[in-house]
Amino acid sequence: MENKRAALERAFQRGGQLTLKNPVYRQWIERFIVDELQADVGRKGDITSRAVIPRRSALKAVIITRQAGVLAGMEEACFLFRKNGLRPAAKKKDGGRIRKGEVVLEIFGNTRDLLRVERSAVDLLQRMSGIATLTQEVISLIKNNVPVAPTRKTQWRYLDKKAVFIGGGMTHRLALWESVLIKDNHLYALRRLGVKDPIAASLGKAWKKRKLANFIEIEVATMKEALHAAEVMRKLRKPGDACLVMFDNMNPRQMKRTLEELERKHLRDGLLFEASGGITPKNVREYASSGVDVISMGFLTHSVPALDMCMLIV
Question: How many CA atoms lie within 13 A of 263 on its CB side?
Answer without folding.
Answer: 9
